[in-house]
Give the backbone structure.
Amino acid sequence: MRSRFGWATRLAGAWLVIVASACVAPPIEPTLTPAPTVTDQPPTATLTPTRTARPTRAPTLTPSPTPVATAGPPPSIEPELPEGFSLEAFELAARPVLGEPFQPIGASAEAVLERHRSHRELVWPSPYDAVTDPDAYYTVQAIGADEGDLFYARSVAVESTDRGLLEGVDVIKGEQVLFSIPPETMGPGLLGRLWVDGSHWYLNVLHARSALGAEMELIADVIADGQSLSQRHGFDEAFNFQLLAGRPFFFFRASERYGFSYDGILYPTGFTGIEHHLCCAGGILNPLAAQEMVAFYAQRGETWYYVEAGVFPAVGELP
């Protein structure tokens, strides 16, 4: 089927392969001296980033290092987090730059990344092209489906028209098509990861609102059991659905405010930006979905943060 589309389809395929690999890349980690060992403490919950390298809620290291100079904290971000859920936001000196480690104020990137390295490295497997379908341009196998179940999504009907390349999507369980998106303008890749949580399924999609090019507008959404979560909740976008500690999690954008949903409850964050659906090399700045946490870059006004959120124990302050 791929040979019917010539150079245009090969170009689209290249975009898709790049995006599939980029979206699961981990944050940039420099090769520096490892951070000191810290002691685990019981998890607590808050959502207040500080203006120092100390994350929210972090207890004190033993022994305590020489403290760094601090500035007054910004206004509190509400609301409180779910029980057992932690969010640690590290203020950065500048927006993260590709090919360079991020720059937390008062500490090294390596020290920040060492805190929850073991949790962050438990990434979900790549589900792309794990299912063979002769009618598909590419496939995405469902994460979380019962072993032996045929549950996947496929990219279909990639063709060239006067509107450019078009792509559609089918969600398939066994021999049944559960849901379809008719062919629409093809961007970096309409079809994202497919997840199964018990009797429910969730599909990440990325709509392109114009032809392929520098001015393309990309709008992310999550389809839950055949319904758009953006439409259900009145969001401008829903994006980066994953299972986090066995419970459904996704980000949302409502106007210029961002938040997340965890286990069916919506939590605003006060962030005015969360990096997502970046293409190609920029994909390394997209949220990283691990099994018990998510790592991402966010901003509030002109201030940038590296954030790790999930179900993990809080640890001591940074040196």
Helices lie at 6-22, 109-114, 117-120, 229-233.
